[in-house]
Amino acid sequence: MILRATAGLLALAGLAAAAFYAGLTRAELRVATGPPGSAIQRLVSAFVQANARLHPRVRIVPVEEAGLRASAAALEEGRVDLAVIRSDLPPPTNGMTVAILRRDVIALVLPPHSPVTALGHLAGRRVAIPAGPVQADDARLLDALLDDGGVPAAQVERIFAEPEALVAAVREHRAAAVFAVGPVGPGAAVDAVAAVARATRGTPTLLALPEAEAIHRRHPGLEPSEVPVGAFRGRPDVPAESVDGLAVTYRLVASRGMLDIVAAAVARSVFTARPLLTASIPFAGQIEAPDLDDRSPLLPVHPGVATYLTNGDQSFFDTSQNYLYLGGIVLSLVGSGLALAVSHGHRRRAARERLLVRQLLAIADEAEAAEAARLDGLARDLRGIVSAALAKQAQTGPGSPLLGQAIDHARAAIRERRDALGRG
């Protein structure tokens, strides 16, 4: 009975799985959005709304975390299914890339005619950092770059300032440079260039990092990036000529354990929503697919996303069928195993019942000529066999009619012999 019930439940589970995958994925996913009030949080909020229209089968639920490090920890601890991380920060050990949401240039903005021409020249000077939700992360990034330049972080004072305060700090020579991390377009880097230009009434410059490739090898989360002419300002252009630099990426990452079909659905939503998001979040146009050819990625591309990017929507549908097919195979194997177990159980039960029938027939045969004392012993043996049979049937269900007939035959034989002895 238990095995039959289990087989029935597995059959129902198989039907439910078939219905689930035949209708494609339905899922509710929690995403850690990062620092409150940040541009990335606004992007994720806009994506959640767009996804509800474009892919209602996959519901995205934003989970606000205190910072980017907290977002990575939330994914690692299993409190969320997706998270936005920045590549220069320690990545979650179980994270896999779904999409690159933004690529931010690391800009060290200098006043005109600045004596600073290398990272090492910042020793003993003060650097301003735009105040905001990621200022602590930007400060740690500056420390890492200074360390590569051979400058102890303690030798470079830093101040955190709002845009107007940045202008004053540069104008009053309280800051030798402004360190900003932002996209090519509206953002922190453009604002820093504008602040230095206002403070000096001149054309700011960007510190070139010719050692960018070497820094990347030591810090894989920092990618070499060429800043094009006029990336941060036109008329006059800033920079006036292309500059070797570094960039960090904001990535949407999924847990390694996420089903391929679900990860593919999320990627599809992200890339489909990009045109809608750009209307309200300009830098959303920078959303890009991860590089499938990168042989040593910091955060590998999720296999489901890689399949989707390689084969597109057809792959997305095929993946659903694959899950259904594999699920059917597994359920079929489990069902076959249960059938064998049930068959083996039936054979064992039949063998036990045949043994009991033979014992009962032996009791009946012996009872025909037994004396009174022996007859009492045969009656006790009969009761023992009946008790054992009833206990077994309570677990496995009713036995065969033959067993019942054998019990009746043994009882009748004992009763008839008692009657005969009584008459004698």
UniProtKB/TrEMBL annotation:
Q: SUPFAM superfamilies given for it? A: Periplasmic binding protein-like II
Q: Which residues cross the membrane?
A: 323-342
Keywords for the protein's UniProt record, in alphabetical order = Membrane, Transmembrane, Transmembrane helix
Q: Does the keyword GTP-binding apply?
A: no
User: Does the keyword Ribosomal protein feature in the UniProt annotation?
Assistant: no
Q: Tell me the protein's name.
A: C4-dicarboxylate ABC transporter substrate-binding protein
